[in-house]
Design a protein that fits this description.
Elements lengths: L9 H15 L2 E6 L5 E3 L2 E2 L6 H7 L7 E4 L9 E5 L4 H7 L4 H7 L5 E4 L3 H9 L4 E3 L8 H19 L5 E3 L2 H9 L3 H24 L6 H14 L4 E2 L4 E4 L20 E6 L1 E2 L8 E6 L6 H19 L7 H18 L7 H7 L25 E2 L2 E2 L7 E4 L2 E4 L19 E4 L2 E5 L9 E3 L14
Parallel strand pairs: 1-7, 5-6, 7-8
Antiparallel strand pairs: 1-4, 2-3, 4-5, 9-12, 10-11, 11-13, 14-15, 16-19, 17-18, 19-20
Helix pairs in contact: 5-6, 8-9, 10-11, 11-12
Bound molecules: glycine and manganese (II) ion (2 copies).
The site of glycine has 7 residues, from loops.
Amino acid sequence: MAVLAPVFDAQVFADRRRRFMAELGGAAAVIPASTLVTHHADTEWPFRQNSDFWYLTGLDEPDAVALFLPHRPEGERFVLFVNPREPSAEVWTGRRWGCEGAVDRFGADCAHPRIELDALLPQYLEGAEGIAYRIGSHPLVEPLVLRAWATQLDRAPRTGRAALALVAPCPLLHRMRLRKDPSELERMREACKIAASAHELARAAVRPGMTERQVQALIEQHFLEHGARGAAYSSIVAGGDNACVLHYIDNRDTLQEGDLLLIDAGCSLPDYYNSDITRTFPVGGRFTGEQRELYSLVLAAQEAAIASVHPGQTAEDVHATAVRVMVEGLVDLGLLLGDVDGLIEQGAYRHLYMHRTGHWLGLDVHDVGAYRLGEHHVELEPGMVLTVEPGLYVSDRLAVPEGQPPIDDRWKGIGIRIEDDVAVRDREDVACGHEVLSVDALKAVQAMER
Ligand code: GLY
Ligand code: MN
Ligand code: MN
């Protein structure tokens, strides 16, 4: 059983901070960590660090606040406010790094107890040309930032200076996070490898009469045994018609012979890199004719969409590729009626395919980064990672658009999604311009049967 030690390379985080501060120019940034979230009564959910804070610090503790102060002299630019060492608290919740660890391990130029943020923030922000803080991100830190800024504005007539603007750090930070470096891609390969083997394990184990919950347990046990933090999101284990509910997470029905099983499950590593994989296969080991037709169609759409991933394309192009293949196939099957271009233009397929074909993937499952800037769709570049996840969901939940054929009962209750995680690669390194990180999860029609 491979258990992964959390990887901590201080240099990686230092490099990111240097790049971030270079982009900030004369603005100071305030990036808070997450806090613990109550589950019920006095019980909390497991801690989940804020991904921006993690990306810049690697510190996995609640309540901290990081300041990035490029306007200050060298040696005073990265300041951490943290929960200090305190044996009476640590005996309940575990070891803290404290101010000493913040400096020695996490590379802070200086560190203070979190409780001092209120008093010290104004002087740290003094002299910055702007303040980069994401409004709405933290109810306790936000009033402190606003108060510090207001004080600067009040005093500006006599001091002669104040931060001119409160700006969002997201565009530049998320532009950085959108392009993964080689060490990040390696972590995502690892997350995909663990999740792919969990999908393989589940498919081999599934039999009619098992519950969706049992399959979820198998998958999530595998994640934990292989060193993941756990599931990256609530695992979807959806037999039969449940698969037509896109975010079905009840996972409490019994699997029936003759149904398909859709499993959308990925893991999160200790350093928060995620995988997000969906596979769909017959519970009883053999597709029915209709299931095979639709599965083959989704697979063809997914393979065409993946083939279209390379530098210079856009996520919009990838979506358009999947939609076209599926609409052509649905017309051939008699599930749609009309001219393919017209059907696409009118969105007349959306009662069968109602979501987008993918999203960025990284420290967040639906990762940060723009898909479009104004009218311009963001071009794929080496290092970006996106999911490619077309699907078809045949049920009565959405009305058939006017002019489209009613759906014969034999198709109903079929929900299929096939989802892989794909890194955009430089064509000089990988001729096709992409790498399927989740390649170990099989998906050929024959591989789904037994
Ligand atoms: N599992 C969430 C998604 O596929 O987007
Ligand atoms: Mn996804
Ligand atoms: Mn998914």
